Amino acid sequence: MQTDAIEKLIDNKIAAAKKEFGAGVELVILEVLGLQKLLIPGEKKESREIPLTRWNDYHPDPSVPALRMLVFRKDENGFDMAMTRRGKRILIIEDKYFEWKKLREEGKL
Question: What pLDDT does 82 receive?
Fold first, then answer.
């Protein structure tokens, strides 16, 4: 089946469930579908490289000044595993950052 056909089938099933059980069932169905996607291993996404100055557009913390300090002390804290440079630009490799953070929390860095 093609993606469009599957999406149409899902929409029809949700509409039928809403008609039978009420409007609240749509939210429950969508939550269940989202949780199921977490269980099914999909293709691995390529990690994002986020410019240091734009990090807070995607994640609430750490702040940009805190990131700058991590970069400044990268030789002491192992943060160089989570970053790369393109010219003068510093990019944070998203999945490597969270890996670095986990290692720090476990005391392995």
Answer: 96
Answer with the residue of higher pLDDT: 85 or 38.
Answer: 85
- For residue 50, what is the enclosing H or E element? strand 49-51
Neighbour tally for 93: CB within 10 Å: 17
**56 and 96 together in one domain:** yes
Answer yes or no: do 35 and 79 share one domain: no
Q: Are residues 55 and 95 in the same domain?
A: yes
Of residues 38 and 28, the one with the higher pLDDT is: 28
If asked whether residues 31 and 72 sit together in one domain, one would say no
- Which domain covers residue 70, as residue numbers? 49-105
Q: For tokens 């291993």, what's the residue? A: 41
- 97 and 63 in a common domain: yes
pLDDT digits (tens, 9 = 90+) for 30-82: 888 777 777 777 656 678 999 999 999 999 999 999 999 999 999 999 999 99
Strand partners, 92: 50, 83
Phi, psi of 50 (to 5 degrees): -100, 125
